[in-house]
User: Fold this.
Amino acid sequence: VRARERLAYDEAVARASAFSLARAARKARRAPIIKSDPKSEAQFIKALPYTPTGAQLRASDEIRRDLASGSPMRRLLQGDVGSGKTVVAIMSFLIAIEHGLQGAMMAPTEILAEQHYRNITALTGPLGIKTVLLTGSLKKKAKDLVLADIGSGAAQIMVG
Assistant:
């Protein structure tokens, strides 16, 4: 019994040590400092057919702070279907795009990816942002065109 308790204790200490080392390694890594221009987000919000909720704006503010911190962002945005996660993602993409970067959104199914693609295109198209859809069912020629747009930087948002 005591040997089993000692083994459990040693395993717990080893696990805690490993997590602590991993956390310290993540904190030591640096990321580009990406500061946003509030004007572009305000322009996007003004173009929306509805007013973002307080929770959406808070989540966007937290992401903006993370991007400006110089540390890699580790964030999970969760919410019910229809709660506005896509709008928060778009606001994050806008910050990246301002700095010549690209954004990507992955969906678990092609149907959901196509739905996100249509929604994102409808909201960002008027701002002149190019969004592309990359799925496994694309024919080779279409896929090559999408990959070329991604590689050249012409595509600013990718949905797959």
The first helix runs from residue 2 to 28. DSSP finds six helices and three strands in the chain.
